[in-house]
Amino acid sequence: MEEKKLIEFRNIVKSFDGQIVLKGVNLDIYENEFVTLLGPSGCGKTTLLRILGGFIDADEGKIIFKGEEINHKPPYKRELNTVFQKYALFPHLNVYENIAFGLKINKISKDVIDQKVMKMLKLIGLEGFEGKNITLLSGGQQQRVAIARALVNEPKVLLLDEPLAALDLKLRQEMQYELKRIQQEVGITFIFVTHDQEEALTMSDKIVVMKNGEIQQVGTPQEIYNEPANRYVANFIGESNIISGVMLEDYKVWFDDLVFDCVDFGFKKREQVDVVIRPEDIDIVGKEKGKMTGEVRSVLFKGVHYEVMVETIPGTQVTVNMQVIRSHDAVSEDGKEKISATNFYVDLEDVKSLDDKEVVARSNAQAWNPETDDYISISRIEFDVREEEGQYPVLFSTSNGTSIERTIFVVNQPFVSNEKANEAVMAFNFQTTAEEIRESQALDTDMKTWASAQAWKLSDESQSVDISVDYDFEPENVAEGVYRITFSTMGREFKIHTTDYIKEGQEVGLTFFPEDIHVMSRMVY
Amino acid sequence: MKKRKRPVLKALMALMIVFFYLPIIYMIVFSFNEGKSLTVFTGLSLRWYQHMLETGGMLEALYTTFSVAVIASFISTVVGTFTAIGLSKSKKLIRDLMEQVDNLPMMNPEIVTAIGLMLLFITFRVEKGYITMLLAHIAFCIPYVILSVMPKIRSLDPDLADAAMDLGATPWQALMKVIIPQIMPGIVSGGLIAFTMSVDDFIISYFVTGGGVKNLSIMVYTMSRRINPSINAASTLMIGIITIVLLIINVGPLFAAKRQKREKERKKILLPAALAAVCAAGCIVFVRFGDMQEKRPFEGEILHIYNWGEYTGENIIGDFEEDTGAKVILENYDSNEQMYIKVANGESYDILVPSDYMIQRLILEEYLQKLDHTKLTCMDKLTDAVKGLSYDPENAYSIPYFWGTVGIVYDKNKVDVESLEQEGFNIFLNEKYQGDIYLYDSERDSFMMALKALGYSMNTEDAKELDEAYEWLVRCVETMEPEIVTDEIIDNMAQGRRALGLMYSGDAAYVMAENENMGFYLPKTGTNLWSDAMVIPKNAKNPELAHAFINFASDYEGAYDNSSYVGYTSANQEVMDVLSGPGGDFEGISAYIPRTDCEFDEVFVYNEKTRKEISNMWSRVKIVASNANPSKH
Amino acid sequence: MKKFSQMAIPYIVWSILMLVLPMALIAFYSVTQPGNSIISFSVTLEHYVKFFTDADFLIILWRSLWIAFKTTIICLLIGYPVAYYISHCQERVQNILVFCITMPMWINMLVRTYAWIGLLSQDGLIQRLLKMLGLGNTELLYTEGAVLLGMVYNFIPFMILQINTTLCKMDDSLLEAAADLGADSIQAFGRVTLPLSIPGVVNGITLVFLPAVSSFFIPKLLGGGKYFLIGNVIENQFITVGEWNFGSAISMIIAVIMMLLMMCVHKAEARNQGGKEEA
């Protein structure tokens, strides 16, 4: 590849309505490269492309094209062409006329136009389509026409703005090869915008990963995949296990309470880092042979491989009592209304946020007509709770005066915290009836509600953590009594891609080579 | 891409806005003019608003305009919406067919639609009036609503209704709670289009209305011949109402948008629009019916008068209503023929005011009922010159209203009396006055002029003489570039815009009173001595009240009001004397007192055969005239 | 869905009664004699013969078409740039301008036309302005020019709104694509904007030409009594002459002519637009 700078972005800044979209982007693009701008929507990749195309002006910075600043050149004077996201084919022109548009504008003689258009049609494999109405073409065909329309002008650079987004999966893959082929055949620079990492990896010579108007990493697909610059890039490209760790010294990294050899160096001593291990780089071995051990939690068949989740560090858990009591409906005098509710526990801290809706949900209060089974709304909820441990009455009644009284227990519930896993779990004892359990459509979720079970990150209390529920009764046959319910978070899990089948629940060892560990600087948010 | 400034386009846009609003602003300004002129602003006054309120007809027209628009747009929005939903679920064949049918009123010239509807109502003997107007408006509004709702329905997810019903909604609930809210923007814009079309409509209303029901367009059309600043006042009122409605619809959501999300405001458009419309209609209803009063002899009864435009005094209708408690519906025509067609089509009026020959024809064709002379108190107040004329020798059917002659109004500075005396009506062929003359758009009087110029009787039945008269007129319109006008001649001659004009003596009296440079000349070869009289058609619904009106209009006060305001010679002897006498409005104005001593003067006699011939020939003369000099300047 | 499709039935009946039947009646009247009833009648083509064998009627028909044509051209020439300007304004300004153009349409056409009488008449505002500019004392009211002006005034909003709608609907990326392919703004307009706005132009032409041909109150108000158009002839036949059958025949003729013309325009558009998207 010839290393000749074609385009230079120098500190490009752009904002729309006061919102900064590009925060000073610097980027060099060389001749004959297939460059991909990759990032989620809103990262500024399309804006950068449109600034290059000349459709919008940068607020600050320079765009240099072949050594010449082109900031103020109108689009029609720039030596580059664009394939638009929805192609922007002219609906009033046919295939031939669309492709010939730019040539006609430049007053090229008719026979030359003819020749060039025909050559293009051949290149894109649409010979014989020249008279076709473009609105009647399929998405893939329109796509090719859009490419041909741009390429026929022999631009130095072709800009492609998510051109494959509108195509279905199969067609998209086909077009990926097609685009790469065309690029290699015409030998010009392609700048391709996409949010699809697979597309980027397949086609590019160089990938530019962007986030929030900043470039995160520039590199070949291999570099980007194997040596992501940070957690964000690693997450965005491919699947990965990302663990926070500490770099002890060069070639030594600590995570999950263990020290591992690695090939990375140049970090400060005891620097906080992120560690990436790609799922396909981990091997499952016997329990005793592994660098770390764990229990297989799930195995998913993915076609070419199994995706195995291995828990190396168990999650945090809390167990509460579920008291199954007899049905305790209150019936109105005429027997036309029934009302039910249960006692419940509430944490001292949550008393403040206890409102009618919350009380109804926690006590599972409901009223209905026993004959028709229609629900009746609970019109009045009376309770008086103080921020003090104790028992408080709560009265639910319907508009007809049918009512039931229950108790709110205000307790100072301790929570189970797990410093190592950076999380805490809390749940309350609760009461319910066998009938409720039997009729529940989603028992796990209901039990979480009844027990007010919650889990959160110790480092950030607003960030909640998923909990799973474990119990050992059969909901169908549950009888009155006390049952133990365990709420637990997931522990440290590793995702592993393997072609060998492994049984769930098995204790296994995990191993990997030092070069499979990739250490990245901790991202600063 | 950057939007560059385009100074040329910007200027054009500004000019366009000026072009759009100049006439409207001009009209608003002149509605506050003190004087009658539409060109010179003499001072600020509310006189024309007062006049508008007093005459009543204007407010009624406004009321009709808006009530028809509100009802028609409401009904057509509802019907159109449901139909559109229905059609979208119908078979393709039906859908395509209905699309074609819906296109009919949109792809047809409006006048064709109008005539079609008129023929429909006449064929099925539906009495033309408010209801027919409303039906017609609904008929042409619905297609626009469908057109505006259809695309919204097409863009809907076809499973929406199914999803709603799957979740337990009845079809009706699915419709009201899911589909209608989704297509609300289309419904609202459809409703607005319908409202606009209805308010804006003239042609269709003009052909399908009857019984004196007029909207503002018809009012303006029938009154536009003579300057009447009340039209400006009524129009300004209308602009005011429309502006308020529009501001509420358009600006309201703009403010709301700042606070609310887009979705919610949609619903809010309809409410203020409907409210504003209801308020507007309510105001008019209030003004209209606000003045109900105590019992009087004809309390609550209705009198339909079909009279010439600008042929009643300022106060006579109001006074009559005051005295009797009856309500007068006044409808205007501008030719005897126009009136005849309506009467012959069975439209019912209580009083008509046709001219001599037309009375003769109506009697002949048995459209009139004999007057009950025991109920008439006015016979001896009438001047002898108008009693017992040939068309109704016994005055069994008619009581004279106005009378007069037809002569030449001339600008004394441009035309000398000698040449008038020499040439008589032939002065209209004198090329010295080319482009400086007015002819009057009346087949009878035009042919009278030609026949008299040629020295024939104006009642001739001789085809050769009629042909000669036709040639005379053709020569006139081909060589003299005349304007063929109706009542606009009055104001134009009063301002001395042409040297010569053929004019009724009464109009001439008004012109001379306004402009002392104007003279009135009656050629010695004779002219038409005409009279217009009140008659009661056979199908009159309230002959009793009609008799009362005839008495009222012939009495001194009524006749004085009529004659002094309109300028025509009263049939009431006393009024005539007072007005032409010392201190009278028309003192010294020769045109006011008709000539009764020329042997060549004649009264028109009705003759079916010559009528048809003259009618055809005159419409031909006008076509020739319009083809001779279509673009004069 | 059966239930929903039934909702269209009342209107189908209504439209046959109120839209189709009237046309049939006009057709019926146009081929019968006065006094004929629906039960006993004799078909005659004499009314059509009368119209087509009379040079004067044909001249009026021609003139009506000609002035409608002129109106349409003027509306197009002025309306297009205005619509173009509006479509290139910011959305808020766009809404205001569209409102400014629609607003007069809410005020009755007759009223608006009537307002011109004062403006155009002798010693009126415009005459005085012209005099100040030394353009002499030309007559404005009751001329063909006045009729033309009245028609342009009344009908140009339709043209502007139609064109503006298509221009606004146009995808901006098409213009970007044109610029990208080397077209400067004039070329982009000629090769992309203009051809793509043809549907709007056609709709605009229809909405201007159609009422202009058959208008009769504008010539009557602003053209004086002597400026006859086909609409006036029809009105005359129905209102003053009373020859309904002949009037119906003229109505039929004008309806058919318009239908043919509109078909031609839409055909031409369809051919031009080869593969345009249905907007």
From TrEMBL, chain A:
<dbReference type="GO" id="GO:0016887">
    <property type="term" value="F:ATP hydrolysis activity"/>
</dbReference>
<dbReference type="GO" id="GO:0005524">
    <property type="term" value="F:ATP binding"/>
</dbReference>
<dbReference type="Pfam" id="PF00005">
    <property type="entry name" value="ABC_tran"/>
</dbReference>
<keyword id="KW-1003">Cell membrane</keyword>
<dbReference type="GO" id="GO:0043190">
    <property type="term" value="C:ATP-binding cassette (ABC) transporter complex"/>
</dbReference>
<keyword id="KW-0472">Membrane</keyword>
<dbReference type="InterPro" id="IPR017879">
    <property type="entry name" value="PotA_ATP-bd"/>
</dbReference>
<keyword id="KW-0813">Transport</keyword>
<dbReference type="InterPro" id="IPR017871">
    <property type="entry name" value="ABC_transporter-like_CS"/>
</dbReference>
<keyword id="KW-0067">ATP-binding</keyword>
<dbReference type="InterPro" id="IPR003439">
    <property type="entry name" value="ABC_transporter-like_ATP-bd"/>
</dbReference>
<comment type="function">
    <text>Part of the ABC transporter complex PotABCD involved in spermidine/putrescine import. Responsible for energy coupling to the transport system.</text>
</comment>
<dbReference type="InterPro" id="IPR050093">
    <property type="entry name" value="ABC_SmlMolc_Importer"/>
</dbReference>
<comment type="subunit">
    <text>The complex is composed of two ATP-binding proteins (PotA), two transmembrane proteins (PotB and PotC) and a solute-binding protein (PotD).</text>
</comment>
<comment type="similarity">
    <text>Belongs to the ABC transporter superfamily. Spermidine/putrescine importer (TC 3.A.1.11.1) family.</text>
</comment>
TrEMBL record, chain B:
<feature type="transmembrane region" description="Helical">
    <location>
        <begin position="186"/>
        <end position="213"/>
    </location>
</feature>
<feature type="transmembrane region" description="Helical">
    <location>
        <begin position="233"/>
        <end position="257"/>
    </location>
</feature>
<feature type="transmembrane region" description="Helical">
    <location>
        <begin position="130"/>
        <end position="150"/>
    </location>
</feature>
<dbReference type="GO" id="GO:0015846">
    <property type="term" value="P:polyamine transport"/>
</dbReference>
<dbReference type="GO" id="GO:0042597">
    <property type="term" value="C:periplasmic space"/>
</dbReference>
<dbReference type="InterPro" id="IPR001188">
    <property type="entry name" value="Sperm_putr-bd"/>
</dbReference>
<keyword id="KW-1003">Cell membrane</keyword>
<feature type="transmembrane region" description="Helical">
    <location>
        <begin position="269"/>
        <end position="289"/>
    </location>
</feature>
<dbReference type="GO" id="GO:0005886">
    <property type="term" value="C:plasma membrane"/>
</dbReference>
<feature type="transmembrane region" description="Helical">
    <location>
        <begin position="12"/>
        <end position="32"/>
    </location>
</feature>
<feature type="transmembrane region" description="Helical">
    <location>
        <begin position="61"/>
        <end position="85"/>
    </location>
</feature>
<dbReference type="Pfam" id="PF00528">
    <property type="entry name" value="BPD_transp_1"/>
</dbReference>
<dbReference type="InterPro" id="IPR006059">
    <property type="entry name" value="SBP"/>
</dbReference>
<comment type="similarity">
    <text>Belongs to the binding-protein-dependent transport system permease family. CysTW subfamily.</text>
</comment>
<dbReference type="Pfam" id="PF13416">
    <property type="entry name" value="SBP_bac_8"/>
</dbReference>
TrEMBL record, chain C:
<feature type="transmembrane region" description="Helical">
    <location>
        <begin position="140"/>
        <end position="161"/>
    </location>
</feature>
<keyword id="KW-1133">Transmembrane helix</keyword>
<dbReference type="Pfam" id="PF00528">
    <property type="entry name" value="BPD_transp_1"/>
</dbReference>
<comment type="similarity">
    <text>Belongs to the binding-protein-dependent transport system permease family. CysTW subfamily.</text>
</comment>
<feature type="transmembrane region" description="Helical">
    <location>
        <begin position="12"/>
        <end position="31"/>
    </location>
</feature>
<feature type="domain" description="ABC transmembrane type-1">
    <location>
        <begin position="61"/>
        <end position="265"/>
    </location>
</feature>
<protein>
    <submittedName>
        <fullName>ABC transporter permease</fullName>
    </submittedName>
</protein>
<keyword id="KW-0813">Transport</keyword>
<keyword id="KW-0472">Membrane</keyword>
<dbReference type="InterPro" id="IPR035906">
    <property type="entry name" value="MetI-like_sf"/>
</dbReference>
<keyword id="KW-0812">Transmembrane</keyword>
<dbReference type="GO" id="GO:0005886">
    <property type="term" value="C:plasma membrane"/>
</dbReference>
<feature type="transmembrane region" description="Helical">
    <location>
        <begin position="196"/>
        <end position="218"/>
    </location>
</feature>
<dbReference type="GO" id="GO:0055085">
    <property type="term" value="P:transmembrane transport"/>
</dbReference>
<keyword id="KW-1003">Cell membrane</keyword>
